[in-house]
Structure formats: structure tokens, C-alpha cells
Design a protein that fits this description.
This protein is mainly beta. Helix content is 11%, strand content 34%. The strands form three sheets. Strands 1, 2, 3, 4, 6 and 11 form a six-stranded mixed sheet that branches. Strands 5-13-12-8-9 form a five-stranded mixed sheet, with no helix packed on it. The longest helix has 15 residues, at 5-19.
Length: 166
């Protein structure tokens, strides 16, 4: 059966009017950021949190030196990059008995990394969540007593560095 042209035109007009109404039945929401969820497994109750853009910056942080932090921990912020299955820098310094943050930037595409800080006996004092690159996270590290610590990636134990807390 063939419909008259007027019926086809009327159906098209109604369809267009229905699609252009002022209150759609749904809305578009962009996908959430791809940074890793954050929590920590350290016995000291430390926590890691996803990075907020611009949360830790500054040229002195890039060298591993403490820099003022815009974060809520009140401590210092250190910057560590994971690239080509290696940490950069491999030597960090932090103040004793003062909480600090690590702005962790994993640039290895599709590869998970984290930072696990261990004391001289090899026990973990802070463990950040895995971050699959390219992505970043800001780890909130609790105050640590003075001493030398090792930081390592749990997935790639050949990725190591030294944290000197003074």
C-alpha cells in the first residue's frame, strides 16, 4: 500500500519536531578521566589520590627536589616520571616527619607502574596504586622518620630509586 505524500511529509515534520524538543529524555555525559583509582595498602594508613591537573608543578620538583605543593597535605611535592621502564629521577629528598606528595607521571603506553616505598628492612611504608600509562596520579605519603628508603615499581622490580628523608 502506498501512502499519500502529505502523510509522509506530516510524519517527517512530526519526527523532526519530536527530536528538537527543548527537554530531551537523556543528556550526554563525557567519560570520566582514565587515571587509576586511588587507595593505599600501607600500614601507616597512607593514601594515594588521582592527580588533579596542575596539582604538583614547578621546575624544582622535576629534579626531585621538594617544591611547594598546591595539594591538601601541607607538605612538599616531588615529581617522578616512569618512562621506558625506568624512574626519572632515581634520587629524591623529603623532609623528616612531614607528609608530602609524589606527582607520578606514567608515560609508558599500556604499561602499569606504581611507587612502593620500603624501609631499610624491606618493609613497605607506602604503596601507591598501579597507574597504567599514559596517566598520572598524585600519591599522598605520610610523614616518614629520617632515613634512607628505596622506592620500587611492584610490577617491574628493576625500576628502583632512593628516597632520602632528612
Amino acid at each position: 500500500m502506498r501512502l499519500p505524500r502529505i502523510a509522509l511529509v506530516a510524519a517527517a515534520v512530526l519526527a523532526v519536531a519530536a527530536c528538537s524538543s527543548a527537554s530531551p529524555g537523556w543528556t550526554y555525559a563525557p567519560a570520566p578521566p582514565t587515571s587509576a583509582p586511588a587507595s593505599a595498602a600501607a600500614s601507616a594508613g597512607a593514601s594515594a589520590s588521582p592527580a588533579a591537573s596542575g596539582e604538583a608543578s614547578g621546575s624544582s620538583a622535576a629534579s626531585g627536589s621538594p617544591a611547594a605543593s598546591g595539594g591538601s597535605s601541607g607538605g612538599t611535592a616531588l615529581k617522578v616520571t616512569a618512562q621506558n621502564i625506568a624512574f626519572d629521577p632515581t634520587s629524591l629528598q623529603a623532609s623528616a616527619n612531614t607528609a608530602f606528595q609524589i606527582a607520578f607521571d606514567n608515560q609508558d603506553q599500556g604499561i602499569p607502574h606504581n611507587i612502593d616505598i620500603k624501609n631499610s628492612s624491606g618493609s613497605s611504608v607506602f604503596k601507591g596504586d598501579l597507574v597504567t600509562g599514559p596517566s598520572s596520579a598524585t600519591y599522598s605519603v605520610p610523614a616518614l622518620p629520617a632515613g634512607d628508603y628505596t622506592f620500587v615499581c611492584d610490577v617491574h622490580p628493576n625500576m628502583t630509586g632512593t628516597l632520602s628523608v632528612k
